[in-house]
Amino acid sequence: MHVSLATSAGRAGRPNEDFVGAVPGAVVLLDGAGIPGAERLCAHGVAWYTERLGGVLLGGLSRNDGRDLAGILAAAIGEIAAAHSATCDIADPSSPQATVLMVRAHRGRLEHLLLADSFLVLDQVGGGPQVVTDEREVIARRECSAPLNGVTPGTAEYDRIRASCATALRARRNQPGGYWIAKDDPRAAREAVTGSHSLDDLNGVALLSNGASRIVSPYGLTDWPSVLELLAADGPSGVIDRVRQAEAQMDGGPDTRDPDDATVVHWTDLARHRV
């Protein structure tokens, strides 16, 4: 198993709310959701949540006790919820939460599980990359933001509508017809996007948090085949460097976005897991 990884906080002086880790035969990547004002709901914070959840997930994966990925995730969500439910308002829609991306080599196949908007790139033997993500949050955000179409940014009306859109989006978290994320309800694990692929068909895989996937969209610096080429040449840090360079050049421009935590994992040498 050969795993290379890199992670970068979006801004200096702020904790990196991503989590990444690996055990033999498995990798976990979490992207914490930092909701403004969440400190009043949970004294621990988003980084604490992702670190605790990630550690429990890695422990569950290392035990190889026959559970599927959704079962491991459900148990981990429940354990962390119990750890701070007595002191924090974990049921509030704005309390700490995280996207989840798990991959595991198991019985000759690579299994995956995704909750929300991280990206798994499968480097297929004899073919182009296959990209897997959970699009439900993006769809919900687009639908909830529709009332902003045609409204002038910076106006009082825009700010009022934007606040109502944010409330509408939070109400769709972990709800049928909305989107699912790791938070306080273990049942979210059974709503994850899952699948598996024969290890014989894969050269390797890449995992990217939302902040790192910006290299393809919305920045359009490259496409997914070229991401795999960049990983082979410069490793995960090369992908993040390109994202940070683009953000610096767009500073103050119309397409400027707040820098986000960015994490990339490149897992190669899958052959030893085929038996």
**CATH superfamily descriptor of the largest domain:** PPM-type phosphatase domain
What is the mean pLDDT?
93
Helix content: 25-40%
The CATH class of the largest domain is identified as: Alpha Beta
At CATH level 2, the architecture of the largest domain is 4-Layer Sandwich
Major sheet: 5 strands, antiparallel
- For the terminal residues, how far apart are their CA atoms? 13 Å
Q: Tell me the strand percentage band.
A: 15-25%
Quickly give the structural class.
alpha+beta
Count of helical regions: 6
CATH third-level topology of the largest domain: Phosphatase 2c, domain 1
Query: Which strand order do you get reading across the main beta sheet?
Result: 1-10-9-6-7
Poorly predicted sequence stretches spanning 5 or more consecutive residues: none
Give me the strand/helix succession: EEEHHEEEEHHEEHHE
Number of separate domains: 2
Taking all Cα atoms into account, the compactness measure Rg is: 19 Å
- The number of strands is 10
Q: Choose one word for the global shape.
A: globular
Describe this structure in words.
With 275 residues, the chain is of the alpha+beta class. The chain has two domains: 2-133 and 180-273, PPM-type phosphatase domain (Phosphatase 2c, domain 1); 135-178. The protein contains six helices and ten strands. The longest helix is centred in the C-terminal third of the chain and has 26 residues, at 224-249. 40% of the residues are buried. The mean pLDDT is 93.
Jot down its keywords.
275 residues, alpha+beta, Phosphatase 2c, domain 1, five-stranded antiparallel β-sheet, 10 strands, globular
